[in-house]
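Chapter summary example.
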Amino acid sequence: MVTATIRQRIAGRSLTPGAKLPSVRGLAATLKLSTSTVVDAYERLVAEGAILARPGSGFYVANQAAPFALAEAGPKLDRAVDPFWISRQSLEAGEADLKPGCGWLPPSWLPGDGMRRGLRTLARADGPALADYGSPLGLPQLRQLISRRMGERGIEASPDQIMLADSGTQAIDLLCRFLLEPGDTVLVDDPCYFNFHALLRAHRTKIVGVPYTPSGPDVEVFAQVVADERPRLYITNSAIHNPTGATLSPVTAHRVLKLADQFDLTIIEDDIFSDFEHTPAPRLAAFDGLERVIHIGSFSKTLSASARCGFVVAKPEWIDGLTDLKIATSFGGGRLAAELVLNVLSDGSYRKHMETLRHRLARAMSEVSAKLKNLGITPWLEPQAGMFLWCQLPDGIDAADVARAALEERIVLAPGNAFSLSQSATNSMRFNVSQTLDPRVFEALGGMLAGRR
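The structure predicted for these 453 residues follows.
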C-alpha cells in the first residue's frame, strides 16, 4: 500500500524530484502501520530508484524520474469508472454490442455517400495529393474554408492563424506540449470529458476541478481557484459541453475571460461539437479575439472518425511555435485526410447532412429522455443540441455497479465518476442519445435498476 501510494504521487507530480518524504515514524503514525512496514516500503522504492536515502537526513524523491506509467498517475479507481475502461470497451466493442456510453454517432448517421464521392474524387488526384508529405501548417484550401466557418461563429481568424492536426485530441496534446511544464496546474470542469484527465496526467500536470453549472463553470468557485492555485491553463467546452450538454452563457463567458486576464490564464476552447448546434452559442474565442483563448475543432464527430482531421486556431505568434512542434513530433500533416475532408465539405451536401442530423438528434433526445424518465433516470438538464444527456440515477444506485452489470449483457455505459475529478458523480451517467435508441438498452436498464432498489 505504501509503495503504491508513493509511486502514484510521484507519477502524478504531487511529489516532485528532490522532495523530502515523511519520516518513517511520521508516515507509520499517519497510516497507522508499523515502522517496519514503512521501512520495507522505503527500501523497495530505493531499490527501484524511485527515491534516495540520505543518511542522517531522510528519504527524497529521486531526481531521475522513474518511467512514466499512466496507470500510476491517476487515482486508483474501479475499472468501471476508469476513462480508459470506457474508451477501450467502446472502441473494442463488436458490431452487435450496444454503446450508449460512447462519444460518437453510429456509422449509419454519418454521410457515407459523401465520403465515397470524396474518395472517388481523391482517387483521381495527382501524385502529390496521394503520396507527398503535407505542409506542417496544413492544406491551404481547407484552412481557408475553416477560416470562413470560424467567421460564421464570430471568430475572426485568417488561414495563417489555423493549423491542421490529425484530430482534436492531437491538437490538445500539441498545445499541452507547447504551453505546459510538468507540475503546472491546469483547470478543468467537474464533470468534464474524461480524456482531458488522461491527457493531462500524461503531461504530468496538477489537475484542479471547478463545478460546472447549466450556464458554465461556477464563477465564484472559478475565481477562488484561479486566485489560490494560479493555473497555467483552463480546458473547457463552450458550445455543447461534454458530458452535460450545457451551453455557456454570455455573462459567464465575460466573467471567465475577465478572470483569465487578471490571473494570466490561457484557455483552450474545445469546440468539436459546434456543427450540432441549431443556433450558435457564445464562444470564448469570439469575445476574446484569440488573445488568451485557443480554439480547436475536429470533423471526427460529423464526418468520419476514420478520416482523422482537426485544427487549432490561435494568435499568429503561437501558430509559428506550434508548427515547429508539429514538425518535431509528426513531421508533416495528414494530407490525404485533409484532402478528403475538403472534398466532402465543398461538394454542397454537408450542410444538408448536418441539417438532417440536427433534427434527427433532437428527436432522439426527446425520445430517449422520456424513456429514461420512465425508469426513474432524470436528465440534469434538457440540452439545446448535441448527442449527450447527463443523468442522475435513482437515489442509492451506483452508476459503476450498473455499468459492470450492463457489460455482462454487452452494453457499454459511461458512469459519471469517469468524468468527475472530485469523484462526486457516483449516481450520474452520460447517455449518447444516438446510441440509446435500441429497446434492449431500456429493457436492460430497467432490470438492473429494479434489482438494486
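To summarize the output: The mean pLDDT is 91.
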